[in-house]
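Please check this.
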Amino acid sequence: MMQAVKEYEQALEHPDDRKRLQETYDKMDKHNAWEYEAKIHEVIGKLGLTDLNSKIETFSGGQKKRLALAKMILNDAQFLILDEPTNHIDIETIDWLENYLNLSNKTLLLVTHDRYFLNNVCNQVLELHNGQVFMHKGNYEYYKQKRKERIENHNTHIDKTRKQLKKEFEWIKRQPHGRGTKSNARVNQFYETKNNLGQKDIEEKVELSSATTRIGTKVLRIHNVNKAYEENILLKDFSFDFQKNSRIGVVGKNGVGKSTLLKLIMEEIKPDSGKTVVGDTVKFGYYSQYQEDLNESHSVIESVEEIARYIKRSDGSTVSASAMLERFLFHGKQQQTLIKDLSGGEKKRIALLRILINNPNFLILDEPTNDFDLMTLEILENFLQKFQGCLLVISHDRYFMDHLVDHLIVFEGGGKTRTFPGTYSQYLSSRTQDTSSIEVDNLTKTQQKANRKEANQLLKDIQKLEAKRKDLVESFSEVGLDFKQANIVGKELKNVDQQIEKLTEKWFELGA
């Protein structure tokens, strides 16, 4: 089936070779491959892989990830194992992937930090904690509730056991050295319980706290900025006025210019025209999804101390770099670990700390949620909700965006942008209400499919007429053909030529 589709797609690139087209069309019919071919186009289209002739060696990491997703989906397996599938794909594609998984009736084993994805796709949660596995029925919100209850019950049991042990210890101290069998058994039970007691289940938390430099009324103004790379227009006459304490989210498909906007603001690249005006009191903190500024040969503590040895906190107190690292879950000897030996998530924690200890008042975050565990994400959200400054965020994490931003810059492609006052969920809801555009889109897809089928049928009819024309031409050479018969054949031949011309013209009109 796959081979039939491949040959058919290649034949479409050479429409003048009608014989080849007919052969591949018949092969598609023979293997019932039309539905599969349509599915291929839907999947690779939704995942942004529209150029079928692209070489894999030219793909970015994100493109390779989307290609791997496409292959997995097209394999039509019944058991899917997905490790962070929503990283590097835009929000619209995540929505599509959710719908696909919910409708596919497949078994799914998923690792993800995307909480909306967990809520919308999963009906069980496996938690790995302190060497144990805990099963929770239900989605992520239900899991959080049950996990909290489990920890509370565990800690209550620890408290009761400790109180009981204290009483038993007092009893042991009062007993004489020579004890009977029952007394010895009670003492042995005391020590066995003591050894098995364990600790309270108190989860470590990243404590984010830093001072914020005061920001004035004049923040950041962008005037008629244009930016393009050859024919790829990313920004066209873009203007925006950031107000004090603005909380802006940037959304759009991959490759439409979101990260370019951030780089323009940070002056990492220059606009083709237009300008940005930054207020005198603005102090940027820029968190890139690529941590190029980390020196791989430095240790964790060196990486932080090169920014500041002591950090001012929001309450006016100061802490050492080492103490702040403790709050970021880098304990003791871990602070001597080289940056090159850290995981992706650990490097991002260090990068974030380096930004915060500079006390910025305008935070720019480019995909900050990738590689962070759920607990760290929740603490980061809590910090950002209290952050007294401007916030500009690019993220595919809808949960993160909904909880932090109240205004969107929407990149629509081709340099077009628009603003939306509200959260990302509100934006999605507003798009869903615009049923007319959805209906037009569905109609277009249906029409394209119908056109393709009609073009294939026309090709088949044209080849039948050409075969008939060949027979009519040969009949002219038959012995004994009189004038009347020749005239009939001639008229029929003319009629066949007219039909061939008419069907061929229609075939080209359909875009075949």
The two ends are 21 Å apart (CA to CA). The longest strand covers residues 232-242. The mean pLDDT is 82. Residues 435-475 form the longest helix (41 residues).
